[in-house]
Design goal:
single chain, alpha+beta, 5 strands, DUF2188, DUF2188 domain-containing protein
Length: 73
């Protein structure tokens, strides 16, 4: 089963949560965006939340439920 990926990314001085190119929400602070991203990711397990820095680099990742990699077989 493939996991759903959510990303917390900078957005014109604010922070947004994205999933598959779709905006889930925009927030004033990074911490509020991370909290919202965790909530969304936990609601659609198996999933992953990827948190980016202000310059777009990956800062950390959270995986919820079993990681499907490596795939069975």
């Amino acid at each position: 089963m493939k996991r759903t990926e959510y990303h917390v990314v900078p957005n014109s001085g604010r922070w947004k949560v994205e999933q598959g190119g779709r905006e889930v929400g925009t927030y004033d602070t990074k911490q509020v965006a991370v909290d919202a991203g965790r909530k969304a990711a936990r609601a659609s397990e198996p999933s992953q939340l990827v948190v980016h820095t202000a310059d777009g680099r990956i800062e950390t990742e959270y995986t919820y439920q079993g990681d499907p990699y490596p795939p069975a077989g």
